[in-house]
Amino acid sequence: METVQSLVAAGMGIAFVPYLISKRSFSELFPVHLPLEGRPTRTLVIAYRKGRYISKAAEAFVSTMKEVMKTII
C-alpha cells in the first residue's frame, strides 16, 4: 500500500485503497484521499489448488468464511 500511495502521489495514476490505510502517511509524497459516495463493495476470493492437500485449519477457515459471507450478503 505504501508503494501504491507513493506512485499516486507522484502522479503515476489513481488507486482504490481501504479507508484505514488511506489515513497513514508513509512518506513526504502524500496523495489526496477522496471518500467514495454510496456503498462500494469488493470481491473476496479464497483460492487453493484443486485436488491438493488442504489442512484441517484451512478447511475450517473456508467453511467459516462461507458461513459468514452468507450472513452479510
Can you walk me through this structure?
This protein has three helices and no strands. The radius of gyration is 18 Å and the shape is elongated. The chain has helices at about 1-10, 20, 55-70. The chain has about 70 residues and is mainly alpha-helical.
Spatial gap, N to C terminus: 27 Å
- Biggest sheet layout: none
| Number of E-state strands | 0
Sheet-strand content, in percent, reads under 5%
Unreliable segments of 5+ consecutive residues = none
What string gives the helices and strands in order?
A: HHH
Oligomer: single chain
Helix coverage percent of residues? 25-40%
Q: Can you give the mean pLDDT?
A: 81
Quick rundown:
This protein is mainly α and 73 residues long. Helix content is 40%, strand content 0%. The longest helix has 17 residues.
